[in-house]
Amino acid sequence: MHVQVHYQNLENSPWMDEFITTRVSKLERYLGTAASIQVNLRMFKNRYVTSLAIHNRGHDYAFSSDGDNLYESFAAAVDKANRSLGEQKRKVKDRINRRYIPLKEVAA
């Protein structure tokens, strides 16, 4: 998984980069190894705005959030991505499980 972080009207810090990569790495369970994530952090009219663009095999996702501080904004965007990607994974699993026929029914 490849992560790019872009800052607009903000200062970059090593601690912030580490915070972002640890939070985004939790999305790996829903994404393939070839996925890429672009994180845009900016300050706009005394509000912090976070945008996530996720490119996975055959799917592109976009999530955004704003807040009073940078961490709140970023955490909300990652939570939105986590919920949406988890729901997508559940739908795929349900589709697979509908085609599954238990061996007990075949043997009976």
UniProtKB/TrEMBL annotation:
Gene3D superfamilies: Ribosome hibernation promotion factor-like (3.30.160.100). This is Ribosome-associated translation inhibitor RaiA. NCBIfam families: yfiA. It comes from Peredibacter starrii.
